[in-house]
């Protein structure tokens, strides 16, 4: 049984749990989801770490959006604009459409970076072009995006520790 | 003021400040890409701050759930429009690229000197 079916069963367990309470409320739905999650993560190896990875990725994404929003706000409000714009090509390990679109959406959501296009570079690698407001060193940009975003997304979609 | 009021005021202030900053950014920044960075901030951080404040003020479980769903939908859709506009801006004229200090996309032959209406050879589709 794949993880999507397990997730549906988890939703079903949450609804059942809430339906057996005296009053329908969102709290009991959440409690039912947590109970079902604990049970299913014991039964299905891999399901527990998947949900954990998704939740930790969302928290990481919100944190990095807030952090870089403040940085971009500071760049905008400084008396003299210190812009260093540039487009960096990031070689992708992500292969499927889901992985690439998750990565591109996360990069665009984070202020200061903006994914422009995908394509192939001179070496024939599949790359994602990312526009940076304040760039610095191209290698640093490449490493931070691969470390922070791509590794976590691959951990979600491929399971285990990514690559 | 109860602590809840303080939290609501903080959310509203943060949302308004981010919207103001991105309006200033749209005026001050030099080119289309930099302006898109500023505009994206208003539509995600600013709006979600205001929605969270509204959800807390008229507090109700299902209203709060609706606000969270709205925020999730905004976060899922806004970047797609931004990416599409950035890609179009990059491909429709070399003039828009003059503020870029560093451009690996041009080095890879992805920057055709196109004119409007001319068909672009696009390997990705």
Main β-sheet of chain B: number of strands, strand sense, barrel status? none
Taken as a percent bin, the fraction of beta residues of chain B is: under 5%
C-alpha Rg of chain B, in Å? 20 Å
Tell me which CATH architecture of the largest domain in chain A applies here.
2-Layer Sandwich
Radius of gyration of chain A: 20 Å
Biggest interface, CB < 8 A: A-B, 39 and 45 residues
Give the terminus-to-terminus CA distance of chain B.
Answer: 56 Å
- Multimeric organization: heterodimer
Query: What is the 3D shape of chain A?
Result: elongated
> Which CATH-level-2 architecture of chain B?
Orthogonal Bundle
CATH level 3 topology of chain B? Helix Hairpins
- Strand line-up of the largest beta sheet of chain A: 1-3-2
SSE ordering of chain A: HHHEHEEH
Any overview of this molecule?
The complex is a heterodimer of chains A (163) and B (125). Chain A is α+β, with helices and mostly antiparallel strands. Chain A folds into two domains: 3-43; 79-158, 2-Layer Sandwich (Alpha-Beta Plaits), CATH 3.30.70. Chain A has five helices and three strands. Chain A has helices at 3-19, 26-43, 47-77, 97-109, 138-158; strands at residues 86-91, 113-120, 126-132. Chain A has a three-stranded antiparallel beta sheet with strand order 1-3-2. In chain A, strand 2 and strand 3 (126-132) form a beta hairpin. The longest helix of chain A is centred in the middle third of the chain and has 31 residues, at 47-77. Chain A is elongated, with a radius of gyration of 20 Å. Chain B has 125 residues and is mostly helical. Chain B has a single domain, classed as Helix Hairpins. Chain B is built from four helices and one strand. Chain B has helices at residues 3-28, 32-57, 61-91, 104-107, and one strand at residues 102-103. The longest helix of chain B is centred in the middle third of the chain and has 31 residues, at 61-91. Chain B is elongated, with a radius of gyration of 20 Å. Chain B starts with a helix and ends in an 18-residue tail after the last helix. The interface between A and B is large, with 39 and 45 residues. Strand 1 of chain A pairs parallel with strand 1 (102-103) of chain B, so a sheet runs across the interface.
């Amino acid at each position: 049984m794949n993880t999507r079916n397990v997730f549906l069963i988890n939703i079903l367990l949450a609804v059942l749990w809430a339906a057996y309470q005296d009053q329908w409320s969102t709290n009991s739905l959440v409690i039912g989801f947590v109970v079902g999650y604990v049970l299913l993560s014991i039964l299905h190896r891999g399901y527990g770490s998947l949900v954990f990875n998704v939740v930790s990725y969302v928290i990481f994404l919100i944190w990095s959006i807030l952090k870089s929003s403040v940085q971009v706000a500071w760049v905008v409000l400084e008396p003299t604009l210190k812009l260093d714009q540039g487009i960096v090509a990031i070689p992708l390990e992500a292969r499927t459409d889901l992985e690439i679109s998750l990565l591109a959406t996360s990069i665009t959501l984070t202020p200061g970076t903006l994914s422009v296009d995908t394509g192939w570079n001179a070496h024939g690698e599949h790359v994602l072009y990312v526009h940076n407001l304040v760039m610095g060193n191209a290698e640093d940009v490449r490493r931070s995006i691969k470390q922070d975003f791509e590794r976590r997304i691959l951990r979600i979609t491929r399971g285990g520790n990514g690559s | 003021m109860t602590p809840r009021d303080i939290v609501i005021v903080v959310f509203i202030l943060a949302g308004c400040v981010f919207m103001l900053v991105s309006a200033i950014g749209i005026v001050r920044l030099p080119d289309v890409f930099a302006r898109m960075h500023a505009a994206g901030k208003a539509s995600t951080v600013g709006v979600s701050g205001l929605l969270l404040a509204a959800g807390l003020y008229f507090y109700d479980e299902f209203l709060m759930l609706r606000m969270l769903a709205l925020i999730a939908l905004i976060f899922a859709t806004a970047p797609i429009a931004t990416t599409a506009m950035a890609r179009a801006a990059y491909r429709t004229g070399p003039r828009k690229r003059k503020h870029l200090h560093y451009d690996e996309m041009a080095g890879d032959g992805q920057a055709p000197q196109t004119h409007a209406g001319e068909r672009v050879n696009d390997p990705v589709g």
